[in-house]
Amino acid sequence: MVRLTRIYTRGGDKGETSLGDGRRVAKHDLRVAAYGTVDEANAVLGLARLHTAATSDADAMLARIQNDLFDLGADLCTPEREDPPHPPLRVVDGQVERLEREIDAMNAQLQPLRSFVLPGGTPAAAHLHLARTIVRRAERLMTELAMDEPVGGPALRYVNRLSDHLFVMARHLNGGGTQDVLWVPGANR
C-alpha cells in the first residue's frame, strides 16, 4: 500500500516528475499527460457520484471504476520492461470484462436510440458525459504513447470500454433514456 507522510517534496519544482520506475521525465511528457488525464476523468466521476444514491448500483459501479482508474494510472506511470525488480500493477482483462457485463446489463434496459445524445439530462448524466469525453482524450493520449512505447493491451481496452460504459450509464441515469437530450440535425438553421 501507499503511505504518504508528506504531500509536497519539491522534486517537481523544475518541471520534472518521477515515473513508477524512478525515471525522471518532463511533467509534459506524453506518459504523464495520459495518466494525468485519467486522473482528471476520475475527479469528474467523483462529481457524478454526488448525484447518485450512495446505495445504488450506479454508485457502486462508479466506485469500482474510480478504483480501477487509479490502477490504470499506476499502470501508465510504470513503463513496461522485461524483468522488473518489483512486479508493477497492471490493468487486467477481468476489469475490462466486468465493464462489458455492466454495459450489457444496463443497455438491455434502455430504450433504443433514435438520434445522437447530447450531453445533459440529469446532473449525474451530465457529469458522466463530461467524464466520457475526458476518458476519450486519455485514450487518444494512450494510443499516441503506444506508437512509441509499450502500453498494455488490457489498459487500452479498458479505457476504450470505459467511455462506452459511461455513455450507457448516463442514459441509464437519464430515466432509462427517457430524459436523454437528443440531437435534432439542423434544428436551428
Q: What tags apply to this protein structure?
A:
two-stranded antiparallel sheet, 189 residues, Hypothetical Protein Ta1238, Chain: A, single chain, mainly alpha
Summarize the topology:
Blueprint: E1 16-18, E2 24-26, H1 30-49, H2 57-77, H3 93-107, E3 117-118, H4 123-146, H5 153-173, E4 181-182
Antiparallel strand pairs: 1-2, 3-4
Residue runs with pLDDT of under 50 for 5 or more positions: none
Q: Which fold name is given in CATH as the topology?
A: Hypothetical Protein Ta1238, Chain: A
What percent of residues adopt helix (DSSP H or I)? Answer: 40-55%
Main sheet summary: 2 strands, antiparallel
Q: What's the count of strands?
A: 4
- The CATH architecture is Up-down Bundle
- By oligomeric state, this entry counts as single chain
Strand order of the largest sheet: 1-2
Give the C-level CATH assignment. Mainly Alpha
Basic shape: elongated
Distance between the termini: 57 Å
The total tally of domains equals 1
Number of helices: 5
Beta content: 5-15%
Mean pLDDT: 94
List SSEs in N-to-C order.
EEHHHEHHE
Radius of gyration: 18 Å
Give the CATH superfamily: Cobalamin adenosyltransferase-like
Question: How would you describe this structure to a colleague?
Answer:
- The chain is mostly helical.
- The protein has one domain (25-78, 92-177): Hypothetical Protein Ta1238, Chain: A (Up-down Bundle), CATH 1.20.1200.
- It is built from five helices and four strands.
- It has helices spanning 30-49, 57-77, 93-107, 123-146, 153-173; strands at residues 16-18, 24-26, 117-118, 181-182.
- The strands form two sheets. It has a two-stranded antiparallel ribbon. A two-stranded antiparallel sheet has the order 3-4.
- Helix 1 (30-49) runs antiparallel to helix 2 (57-77), helix 2 (57-77) packs antiparallel against helix 5 and helix 4 packs antiparallel against helix 5 (153-173).
- The protein starts with 15 loop residues before the first strand and ends in a 7-residue tail after the last strand.
- The model has no long low-confidence stretch (mean pLDDT 94).
